[in-house]
Structures are given as C-alpha cells and as structure tokens.
C-alpha cells in the first residue's frame, strides 16, 4: 500500500476544497465583521463534536488576536450556562449539517434574547442558516475520508474560515505585532514579541576609548570588556567607530602594523547603530543578522552612546 500517495491525495483533496471555497465567497463577510466589531460584549463560539473542537480552536485564535471570545458547549448552555451569554454578546454557531440537535435547541433562546447569530453550515436551507443573521457556507464537495463520511475536508475548511475571520478582524482593528505580544507574554513567542532592546541593553562598564587611544591600550580594554570589540567615541561622547577582533586580525596582516598607532586608524568608522531602544529585540536581531555583525551600538538622537546589544545576549534571552 502506497501510504505516501494516500497522504498526497488527502492533502490535495483538502487543498482543492479550500481553493474552491476561496473562489466562491458568496456570504456577507462585511456584515459579519461589523457585527463583531460593534459588539460590546464577547464573541461566543458554540458547536458539537468535531465542529465543537474546531470552534474551540477558533475561539482561542480570536481571543489571542484582539477579539474577546470563548467557547460554550450548547449542551451546557441548555443546562444553566445559557446565562453566560449576555445581552451585549454575539454567537458564532458551527454545525456542518446545520441540524445538530444540541445546537439547534439553543437557537430559539438566542432569538428570544435578541443575540445576533453568525452561522457556519453546509446549506443555506439548514435550520442554523435560517436562524442566522449572517450565514457562512462551509460546504465541501468531497471529504478526504475514503468513505466520504468522516469530517476531514469540512473541518479543515471550517478552521480556515475561522482563521480568515480572525485575520479580517485584525486588519479592521489595525492589530499590530506589539498588540499580539501583550496577549503572549510567556514562552519563546512572548519573548520574541514582547522583549525590547532596552530590556537587554548593556549600559554599564562598556569598553569605550577615545579616538587618540593607542592600539595596545585599546586591546587591553577590549579584553577587559568581554565583548570582542571596543567602542570609539569623540569628545562629545558621540560614537565615532568600532574596533572589532576582525578589524584587529586584518590589521595584523599589514606590514606596517604597529601597536603604537591610534585605534581609529584600523577601526571601522561609522559603524551600524540603532537609535530606537524601544524596538523589539527580535527586530534588532534581524538587523544584526542582515549586517552580519555581533554587536549593535545603541545611541540617542544626537548619536551619543546609550548602550550595546550583543548577539549572545539575544540568544541567551531566547530571542530567535
């Protein structure tokens, strides 16, 4: 049995259903977005079985991207948890058939409470669709299951629709990377999106010399500084240059090399600097990688030295 071909067929079947859906967007997405944006309460997702599992994921995605949202199982709603839905809330109901008994049972109560309803199902003639203020069609022509019965393509499309809804809301709200960071302060993702340059900046006991410093003295300070470089400043404390171990190795190859020369004679003048210490550390790492440097010098608006950010500091902080 060729399992690789089976995997290929499943992926292509689901991809084809996504492509077909992308070419046939007939529902009023703008009305759905307006309902959610203007909602003063929460967006509550509800569904049963596989639809419920997908709904849980959609609720999590929405909550992490700026839309206050949570999942409510319709059975629990019928046994007391309906009170979790407030008059200012909105409901997104998911049922591929549109006839899931548990979900259908709460629909009249939502209407009684004047709760706006967005429905996801395969048919506009379904009960869920008829109760919905906005209906999102998630019909698929073929499930990836060989029996064409197990929810496969349909759950993939439903999840993708949830993602599309979340992205539309992010665009509408102008949701930025910094906003996303505030919802993910922990873990590697949080570190990447939340930690700023100023949080990792070395500001004390920096290896700094003047332009007139002799090379042999600069090398001593370089060794003490443990950064592999020496920062050169002028009389106004403005950054003038940077002497790296690479600069030193290249100078050693010169026949006229002398430890008595001034450090500025072999240093890199006008090195790459950064003026925005509020920049995300992950973006600073991108600068370091783009310029193929190890040390990023941070200055104020007047080019005066504020601190330095070493690539090792970023790695140790888990910034990738």
From TrEMBL:
Residues 201-259, 266-320 form the CBS domain. Coiled coil: none annotated. Keywords: CBS domain, Isomerase, Metal-binding, Repeat, Zinc. Pfam families: CBS (PF00571), SIS (PF01380). Zn(2+) binds at residue 73. SMART domains: CBS. The record marks 50, 102, 143, 184 as: Catalytically relevant. InterPro entries: CBS_dom (IPR000644), CBS_dom_sf (IPR046342), GutQ/KpsF_isomerases (IPR050986), KdsD/KpsF-type (IPR004800), SIS_dom (IPR001347), SIS_dom_sf (IPR046348), SIS_Kpsf (IPR035474). This is D-arabinose 5-phosphate isomerase. It comes from Arcobacter ellisii.
């Amino acid at each position: 049995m060729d399992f690789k071909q089976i995997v290929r067929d499943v992926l292509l079947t689901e991809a084809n259903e996504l492509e077909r859906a992308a070419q046939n967007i007939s529902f009023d997405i703008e009305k759905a977005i307006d309902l959610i944006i203007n909602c003063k309460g929460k967006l509550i997702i509800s569904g049963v079985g596989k639809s419920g599992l997908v709904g849980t994921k959609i609720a999590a995605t929405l909550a992490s991207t700026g839309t206050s949202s949570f999942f409510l199982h319709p059975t629990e709603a019928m046994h007391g948890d309906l009170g979790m839905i407030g008059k200012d809330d909105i409901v997104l109901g998911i049922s591929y058939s549109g006839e899931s008994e548990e979900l259908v049972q709460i629909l009249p109560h939502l209407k009684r409470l004047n709760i706006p309803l967005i429905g996801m199902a395969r048919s506009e003639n379904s009960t869920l669709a008829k109760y919905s203020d906005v209906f999102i069609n998630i019909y698929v022509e073929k499930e990836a299951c060989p029996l064409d019965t197990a929810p496969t393509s349909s759950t993939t499309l439903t999840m993708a629709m949830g993602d599309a809804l979340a992205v539309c809301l992010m665009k509408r709200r102008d949701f930025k990377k910094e906003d996303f960071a505030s919802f993910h302060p922990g873990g590697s993702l949080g570190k990447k999106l939340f930690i700023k340059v100023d949080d990792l900046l070395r500001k004390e006991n920096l290896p700094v010399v003047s332009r007139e410093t002799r090379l042999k003295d600069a090398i001593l300070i370089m060794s003490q500084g443990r950064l592999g470089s020496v920062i050169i400043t002028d009389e106004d404390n403005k950054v003038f240059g940077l002497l790296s171990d690479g600069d030193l190795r290249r100078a050693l190859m010169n026949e006229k090399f002398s430890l008595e020369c001034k450090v500025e004679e072999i240093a890199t003048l006008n090195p790459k600097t950064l003026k925005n210490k509020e920049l995300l550390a992950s973006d600073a790492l991108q600068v370091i990688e783009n310029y193929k440097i190890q040390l990023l010098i941070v200055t104020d608006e007047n080019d005066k030295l504020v601190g330095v950010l070493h690539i090792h500091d970023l790695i140790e902080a888990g910034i990738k």
